[in-house]
Amino acid sequence: MNLLNKILGGCIIASSFFSCTEQETKEVKATNFPNKDSELAIMMRDIVENTQKVKEQIINGKEVEFFIEFEKLHTSTTTEADVRDDGQFTSFANDYTNKVSELIKAETDKTILYNDMVQACVNCHQQICPGPVKSIRKLKIKE
Amino acid sequence: MKKILILSTLVFAFACTNNTTETTEKTEINYTIYGDSTMTDEGVISGEELITLLETTDSAHVKVEGVISEVCSKKGCWMDVNIGGDNLLFVRFMDYGFFMPLDGAGTTAIIEGMAKIEVQTVEWLKHKAEDAGEAQSYIDSITEPIIAYSISEATGVILK
């Protein structure tokens, strides 16, 4: 019985501690893109992801693989509705896709052609959307 | 055995009653992390402390707190943060890897990254003014670069 008394006493003490414990709730959310992004903005992120993979493929001497549907550069919705109006974007986009084609076909000089392709992105962004220029330059392969 | 059951019931009844009548303090901490999801607010400094720090060093890795005064209206890809008086900290995000909510102005932010004083080029200032929806006459009037506090590659931001 002594043992039972001790157990019950322990329960009472424990329950009173439990009932007085201060409750703290933390709600922490993690997100990276909280706004409604345009199709082109999302496509650009896919292009970055694809380019990083191609960079690795070239460094490791593997075949390059693109999964991007490049024709959507000309049809996807844009953050700024008038971005294609003066023809500048279309011209840069064509230059970029030509560079991609050259890289896909190349048997040699892939690093040079890859860096030319990345530079085509830089050229466009410098004129149209300079925010990501610094991060795009990081995609280049150091020769 | 009956005694044990009765006593046990009383103990739990007591505990439950106590829980419902006790005034428990509830602290809610709600915030959102952008970028480095492991970021915490540990070691945060004020804007004034950052300004003092940059008087004696070219750059410093910091977590600094301030109130957002403006966010890029197109994508949320940059922001100005008030760091005391008229001083603004210009913030961009590592590898364009995360953005701020477009309606983030007025929110308290903790920004982690390498802070320094740097030149903002005319080209960039014009682009920023375009993003902010400024009139063409204002954009054309930007002809000189400015020196500004900046974190050009923030690794994480906490919005409170």
Strands, helices and their partners?
The complex is a heterodimer of chains A (143) and B (160).
Chain A: H1 2-20, E1 23-31, H2 39-59, H3 88-105, H4 110-128, H5 133-137
Helix pairs in contact in A: 2-4, 3-4
Chain B: H1 2-21, E1 26-35, E2 45-46, H2 47-56, E3 59-71, E4 78-82, E5 88-93, E6 108-120, H3 122-131, H4 136-140, E7 146-154, E8 156-159
Parallel strand pairs in B: 2-3, 5-7
Antiparallel strand pairs in B: 1-8, 3-4, 3-6, 4-5, 6-7, 6-8
What key phrases describe this protein's structure?
heterodimer, A: 143 residues, mainly alpha, 5 helices, 6% strand, B: 160 residues, OB fold (Dihydrolipoamide Acetyltransferase, E2P), five-stranded mixed beta barrel
In short:
The complex is a heterodimer of chains A (143) and B (160). Chain A is mainly alpha-helical.
Outline the low-pLDDT stretches of chain B.
10-22
Order of helices and strands of chain A: HEHHHH
- Overall strand count of chain A: 1
Give the % helix of chain A: 55-70%
Global outline of chain B: globular
Roughly what is the average pLDDT of chain A, rounded to an integer? 87
Helicity level of chain B: 25-40%
* Order of helix and strand elements from N to C terminus of chain B: HEEHEEEEHHEE
Radius of gyration of chain B: 24 Å
Describe the structure.
The complex is a heterodimer of chains A (about 140) and B (about 160). Chain A has about 140 residues and is mostly helical. Chain A has a domain at about 40-60 and about 70-135. Chain A is built from five helices and one strand; from the N terminus they run αβαααα. Chain A has helices at about 1-20, 40-60, 90-105, 110-130, 135, and one strand at about 25-30. In chain A, α3 (about 90-105) runs antiparallel to α4 (about 110-130). The longest helix of chain A has 21 residues, at about 40-60. The termini of chain A are far apart. Chain B has about 160 residues and is an alpha+beta fold. Chain B has one domain: Beta Barrel (OB fold (Dihydrolipoamide Acetyltransferase, E2P)). Chain B is built from four helices and eight strands; from the N terminus they run αββαββββααββ. Chain B has helices at about 1-20, 45-55, 120-130, 135-140, and strands at about 25-35, 45, 60-70, 80, 90-95, 110-120, 145-155, 155-160. Chain B has a five-stranded mixed barrel. In chain B, a hairpin with a 5-residue loop joins β4 and β5 (about 90-95). Chain B is globular, with a radius of gyration of 24 Å. The N and C termini of chain B lie far apart (about 55 Å). The chains are: A mainly alpha (about 140), B alpha+beta (about 160). The interface of A and B includes residues 4, 11, 31, 32 and 131 of A. β1 of chain A pairs parallel with β1 of chain B, so a sheet runs across the interface.
